[in-house]
Inverse folding.
């Protein structure tokens, strides 16, 4: 599965990445620019065996909300 | 040279700090969190690693760990960020100007007030005095973990419990205590401000503000954060909210190595080494007729103190005494140490004191050499 999850800050993105790595889920942090929101960051999942909903549920446990409107 | 001015900044730093500091200038040379290219991301990852190390050390969340230029900046963020119309601050009578000046500036700006409570060698008395200073209008209690002049420690856990009971913000100045005393946000501290370049053995130009996130703070500096950039309003999330502008990248990455060094040695072992040097110094200095000690540290009372000793050489002013020692190869700081309240408390506001402050790298032999020199010149 290929998908991205927008994250508000680099620190939050890196925290999410580290946490997901501990759960065996790989992703990369990318810088993005969204219309109406400006610069931000996203997690990119390429060929992930885990779906977005499951990842978001995991991130919720560490206080990170998926795809926050920035 | 025998350097004993570690309460101002530790020197030397661990070799791991020098190595990473130098390496960071080359290997992590891009602006972190600003660009999407690999060099910037790599640098930002190194900054994050250091952030995680610092957060873990003080029991904070990485997101709530803000890199600042120094402890003073962190204290300004915390104190002025908490100030509001008619605010009331409570602080101890041992505070450094890094606390007292922002508090006085905040109460002046917001038509508030401030109460200074008396600290004591009796911890229960200190807590009692602090409680008496708190009113229904109190916004925050701000205090140092340990005096930078006489080393007297404040009962942080007990004061934290008091603040929690009174539902007020508790800000701790850990400039002297960080890396030497066991300080954790999990002990009930709401905001802990630390210098990176003292007991944490990082480079100068680094500091930390760590928060439990329970008390939102206004900003006193706004600017570019690399995030939410279309908005003209400062981000409301940490650490970006308080990290406007480019951070001291090489400095904060190297700070991580300093904190790792302390973690590996343990604060307890570092404390025991340094306080033991203070005891040796006091034991020898009190035998010298012309030396006056202001906080005699002994094996019996050591737990009341952090490792600094204030003294003077009879007849000489503190600056003259420190200069005389400097000409003999011993580097210590004379004067008021930016802490006039503490000097008023011990009766040295007019002349100040000379401060003996060892680090983990000082040795007993160096203390004996200092005592020998003091005996010769007095």
């Amino acid at each position: 599965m290929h998908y991205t999850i927008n994250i508000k800050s680099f620190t939050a993105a890196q925290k999410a990445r580290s946490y997901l790595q501990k759960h065996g889920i790989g992703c990369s942090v990318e810088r993005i620019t969204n219309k109406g929101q400006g610069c931000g960051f996203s997690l990119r999942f390429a060929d992930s065996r885990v779906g977005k909903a499951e990842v978001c549920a995991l991130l919720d446990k560490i206080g990170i909300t998926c795809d926050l409107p920035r | 040279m025998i350097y004993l001015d570690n309460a101002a900044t530790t020197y030397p730093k661990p070799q791991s700090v020098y190595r990473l500091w130098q390496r960071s200038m080359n290997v992590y040379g891009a602006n972190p969190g600003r660009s999407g290219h690999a060099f910037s991301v790599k640098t930002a990852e190194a900054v994050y690693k250091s952030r995680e190390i610092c957060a873990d050390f003080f029991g904070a969340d990485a997101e709530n760990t803000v890199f600042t230029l120094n402890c003073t900046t962190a204290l300004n963020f915390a104190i002025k960020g908490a100030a509001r119309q008619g605010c009331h601050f409570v602080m101890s009578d041992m505070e450094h100007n890094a606390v007292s000046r922002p508090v006085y500036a905040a109460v002046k700006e917001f038509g508030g007030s401030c109460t200074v409570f008396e600290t004591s060698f009796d911890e229960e008395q200190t807590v009692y005095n602090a409680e008496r200073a708190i009113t229904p209008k109190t916004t925050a209690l701000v205090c140092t973990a340990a005096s930078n002049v006489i080393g007297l420690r404040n009962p942080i856990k007990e004061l934290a419990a008091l603040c929690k009971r009174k539902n007020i913000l508790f800000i701790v100045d850990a400039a002297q205590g960080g890396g030497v005393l066991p300080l954790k946000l999990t002990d009930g501290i709401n905001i802990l401000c630390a210098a990176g370049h003292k007991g944490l053995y990082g480079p100068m130009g680094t500091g930390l503000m760590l928060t439990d996130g329970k008390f939102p703070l206004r900003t006193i500096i706004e600017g570019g954060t690399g995030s939410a950039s279309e908005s003209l309003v400062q981000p409301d999330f940490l650490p970006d909210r308080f990290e406007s502008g480019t951070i001291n990248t090489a400095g904060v990455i190297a700070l991580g190595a300093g904190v790792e060094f302390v973690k590996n040695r343990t604060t307890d072992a570092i404390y025991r080494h340094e306080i033991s040097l203070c005891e040796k110094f006091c034991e020898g200095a009190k035998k010298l007729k012309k030396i006056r000690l202001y906080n005699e540290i002994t094996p019996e009372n050591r737990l009341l103190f952090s490792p600094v000793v204030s003294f003077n050489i009879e007849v000489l002013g503190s600056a003259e005494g420190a200069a005389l020692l400097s000409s003999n190869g011993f580097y210590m700081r004379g004067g008021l140490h930016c802490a006039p309240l503490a000097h008023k408390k011990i009766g040295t506001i007019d002349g100040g004191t000379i401060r003996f402050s060892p680090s983990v790298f000082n040795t007993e032999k160096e203390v004996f050499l200092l005592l020998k020199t003091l005996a010769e010149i007095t």
